[in-house]
Amino acid sequence: MAKVISIGNQSFESIREKDNFYIDKTNFIREWWDNDDTVTLITRPRRFGKTLNMSMLECFFSNKYKDRGDLFEGLEIWNDEKYRKLQGTYPVIFLSFASIKGNTFELAKNQIYEKIAELYENNRFLLESDCMSDTEKAKYRSFLENPIDKDVSFALNSLSKYLSSYFGKNVIILLDEYDTPMQEAYVNGYWEELVAFTRSLFNATFKTNPYLERAIMTGITRVSKESIFSDLNNLVVVTTTSNQYETAFGFTEEEVFNSLDEQGLSDKKDIVKTWYDGFTFGDKKDIYNPWSIINFLKFKSLKTYWADSSSNGLINSLVQKGSPYIKTMIENLISGEKINVIVDEQIVFSELDYSEDAVWSLMLASGYLKVVSSEELNLIRESDNEYELALTNREILFMFRKMILRWFSPAKHETNEFIRALISSDIESMNEYMNDVALNTFSSFDSGKHNSERKAPENFFHGFVLGLIVDQTENYIITSNRESGYGRYDIMLEPIDKTNEKLPGIVIEFKVINPRKENSLEETVAAALKQIEEKNYNAELIKRGVKEENIHHYGFAFRGKEVCKGMKLQLRSDHGSQYDSADFMNEMKFLGLEVSKAFVRSPQCNGIIERFHRTLEEQVLQTETFSSFEEAYNSINQFINDYNTDWIFHRLEYCSPVEYREKYAESQRKENDDIPSGNKDPEVQLVLISSGSMPRRNEIALQSMIKGAITYSNTPSINPSV
After folding, report:
1. How many other CB atoms sit within 10 Å of the CB of residue 641?
2. DSSP string, 489-528
3. Strands, DSSP E only, in 414-515?
4. pLDDT tens digits, 622-660
5. Phi and psi (nearest 5°) for 72?
6. Which CATH class is domain 570-680+694-712?
């Protein structure tokens, strides 16, 4: 009879007492103990049985489970007399950092304090013994009363001493999910503070602890030795590429197939293999994701169980805001290709924003990628390996597809309509919808801290390619940045069905407007289309059987916002309801303006506007008499126009705004001479597709909408404008 499958139960004691479904991993006990390593760090992806194995170790070694050999009867370890005698003979300290997820350093530190305080509470019986001095008992009680105010660095060291004195044996320490606080610290910006605190705690617990017999730490990542393990020269690190403990975490293919037989699912072996196989630990291939297998055995349906069990927030952010290179690699992976990258398994979280190697390392450690092959590159860096990597399995492929589609969810309708227009060659609709897609999703692909100004259009382009790939997989083979003819095209859509004339072959070229060569987006589009022709990008499609007459060319032009020293043009307003409306905000996005609200009852924070109002009052309202609102409106508008074009300003080197803007534009053009082609114009304002003209906005409505609002530049030397 098939055993009951308990989802989410990580207690070895509970599973064995209830005789629930369990795959025997007790050989891990023998393997670890026989290796005789003082401190061992084992990294495995989440939900791969780390916590259950740590619970198993506690039940086996802890003297709290003395005479509980029944928990191990029928399991492999119990066949060895040597280990029967070892069961229940050591004091064990077992704690988990899985729940340490504070969004500030103080909160995370206090959560660690409370975890250690729980251990002290659970061992309160020590206070009734003679193994501690009065001073030690007073210190123990003080820590119980208010652990947050105490120095916790030596708390586990001290507890080890007390337990060792009481039981006459050194302790075994089990620390599960040691790196969860590290990841939270990186995400929430308190990495350095937590590293210093953790380094001190780990040094006292695992290095300078004379009462330590053995220790195991588990986690997802191998945090760099320089970060928190700098003092631990007794640490043995076992990563996913190590040969130790290959089958202790995760299920082997034999274990999975036997389980399918027991549950009456023998006919599902092939499809289960496609979905959930693919993990490789050391030299052992065909390791299955246990969380997905257990859920499949229980619910008997194929779903992304493991991928959906976490938000995957960090991976999502690193890919979404990553460099064009990273996005290109993800494109290749989703298309079923392999990538060759340098991987350093020592994760330095502080490098994730700018180190592409660190990103691949994290994705490998997290289980999203698998090692196909590796080659040591001693000539580059002795410690690094070059790995050939691929997506782990179909479950991970579907996870990435869903993740990428979520990027475009704010513009889902527009994206769908754009793709329809693209395939049907509806230029007018393409122009309309592409602008909406860009406005709603562009900020999602901004790389943020590093090179965002120059790389933003390229980031958008590669994010857009990823969206096409995951959305049109059934109709097209989509590639980017590949050779064809005499150059490299940006995007190529090759129809799977070459006989279907409703599915044309498509070549797309993206260009950023070059103000030194082009005066308009239309000219930039023309340059993109000319490049497609001159470089003969059709060659690859024709070679693959697409008729030349059924190949469409599209040019995309990006127009940059005027930005000086990384500052954006802002629109300053009061708190009128019209400035909170959806229509107004959409127009501001379209114009590339940021919205800045004046502080209530704080006119001093809005000096530029207030000073202009004074000038307007002195030059117009106090010098003229108006017989009608229309007359006043026209007079004010005329002054605003003069102010922003012909007015001479001291701070503009006695130039008018028009003259100064010309000088400023000329200086920018000279500066751009040193910037490689394709990296100019920092950010996307709008996109123009093909040679069709952009639909004109309702300018009258727009003027009415922004009437009364004051815009100004953050650039100190540029004049405020109304």
Report:
1. 12
2. -SEEEEES-TT-TTS-EEEEEEEE--TTT-SSHHHHHHHH
3. 476-480, 483-484, 487-488, 491-495, 505-512
4. 888 888 888 888 888 888 888 888 888 766 777 887 887
5. -115, 0
6. alpha beta
Cα distance between residue 479 and residue 490, in whole Å: 8
User: Which H helix or E strand runs over 252?
Assistant: strand 251-252
Torsion of CA 95, 98, 99, 105, to 10 degrees: 100
- Say if CB 476 and CB 544 are below 8 A apart: no
pLDDT tens digits, one per residue of 381-412: 444 577 889 999 999 988 888 888 877 777 77
Query: Structurally, what CATH architecture does the domain formed by 25-238 represent?
Result: 3-Layer(aba) Sandwich (3.40)
Q: State how far the Cα of 429 lies from the Cα of 417, in Å rounded to an integer.
A: 8
Q: Give me the half-sphere count of Cα atoms (radius 13 Å) on the Cβ side of residue 566.
A: 8
Residue 7: is it exposed, middle or buried by C-beta count within 10 angstroms (0-12/13-18/19+)?
exposed
Are the C-beta atoms of residues 143 and 63 closer than 8 Å to each other? Answer: no
pTM: 0.68
Q: Do 46 and 220 form a contact (C-beta atoms < 8 A)?
A: yes
Which pairs count as long-range contacts for 597-605, CB under 8 Å and 24+ apart, including other chains? Answer: 597/572, 597/573, 598/572, 598/573, 598/574, 600/575
Write 627-632 long-range contacts (CB < 8 A, 24+).
Answer: none
Distance CA 23, CA 49 (A): 10
Q: Which of 491, 553, 180 is nearest to 327 (CA)?
A: 491
